[in-house]
Specification:
Number of strands: 2
Largest sheet: 2 strands, antiparallel
Number of helices: 6
Order of helices and strands: HHHEHHEH
Strand content: under 5%
Strand order of the largest sheet: 1-2
Distance between the termini: 45 Å
Shape: globular
Bound molecules: calcium ion
Structural class: mainly alpha
Length: 89
């Protein structure tokens, strides 16, 4: 069991959005297999957790496959929505 924890910790060190695309699948993160990565499930990933709110584009509290795909592989075809005002203050 110790080995597994170490392996997970090591994965976490170089876990990035790019690594998400390369090494971790949607189903790996969707621990309960309900088709959505909940905030709790995302919390298991130190990289995905801080990205969660951004990635949850429809703000329903979970990442569906489309949202996850957009996160790990920013689409060249998707219409940019960067113009949306950010509630910074
Ligand atoms: Ca889930
Ligand atoms: Ca969502």
């Amino acid at each position: 069991m110790q080995k597994r924890v170490l392996a997970l910790a090591t994965v976490g060190l170089f876990f990035s959005a790019a690594a998400l695309a390369g090494g971790v699948s949607f189903s790996d993160l969707d621990a309960n297999g309900d088709g959505t990565i909940s905030k709790d499930e995302a919390a298991g990933s130190s990289t995905l957790a801080p990205l969660f709110t951004d990635a949850d584009r429809n703000a329903d509290g979970g990442l569906d496959k489309d949202e996850f795909a957009a996160l790990v592989q920013p689409s060249e075809e998707a219409a940019p929505e960067e113009a949306a005002p950010a509630p910074a203050e």
